[in-house]
């Protein structure tokens, strides 16, 4: 984190990160706090959220506050937005990240209830925060950053429901970017490849061969490794602080996993 500490590239900006107690959301939170932002993060895991709040606030120069929330519940999601604005008086950036990846399996083994439940988190959870954040973001000409997934663009075996929810986020990002441009609100997304997080490790443990799954996960990236949560955070910082003429775009944070179609020299 040394290269971002002290640069304060998003100083005093008020940022919400959903699912910030673990994994990619935690990386985003860390980078913004190191750059002077006031970050409100929510998570369904209250204990992990409280731990992060205590530890990160010591390290500043920004600050973070935790709100316990299940993002799939509209009243709770709305409360995160309203509490943030009551606390800090404004909102500059919303990072939608809280999501879930069910174990890989063929479509035959997913029920419609499984798919409905996943949509509640991965799609409705993003829709609701956008809906309640936008009236505030229009006042600051702020921005939204949606975490989708490379899977939304290139698909993945055993992930039909997950891919569908992430594809919805790519489309939602573009449609919102069009509607909100007149308010000078930017809406962008980033698409992680394989990023080493507790979610990824859980997926590997649920697979038939842990070591093989880890190796496959690394090899899928042209750069030959997992991405880090900080690397995702730095892309979000770029979108929020620097990419001021970009809206409706997506940045792959994937080590080139989507390249090199089928021919090995
Ligand atoms: P993670 O499990 O490490 O972290 C996700 C966090 O979201 C957890 O703290 C969890 O408690 C929280 N969360 C889950 N459901 C929630 C809910 N209903 N309300 C509030 N908080 C909730 O996972 P991660 O790997 O960091 O994934 C974060 C996002 O990145 C997800 O949307 C995931 O689909 C996406 N993603 C991850 C990868 C990867 O390789 N890790 C790749 C592509 C996309």
From TrEMBL:
Q: Name one Pfam family in it.
A: adh_short_C2
Organism superkingdom: Eukaryota
- What keywords appear on the UniProt entry? Oxidoreductase
Q: Name one GO molecular function term.
A: estradiol 17-beta-dehydrogenase [NAD(P)+] activity
* Claim: Oxidoreductase is one of the keywords in the record: yes
Question: InterPro entries from the xrefs?
Answer: NAD(P)-bd_dom_sf, Sc_DH/Rdtase_CS, SDR_fam
Q: Which biological process annotations from GO are given for this protein?
A: steroid catabolic process
Cellular component per GO? Answer: cytosol
SUPFAM superfamilies hit by this protein: NAD(P)-binding Rossmann-fold domains
Query: What is the protein named?
Result: 17-beta-hydroxysteroid dehydrogenase 14
Biological source species? Candidula unifasciata
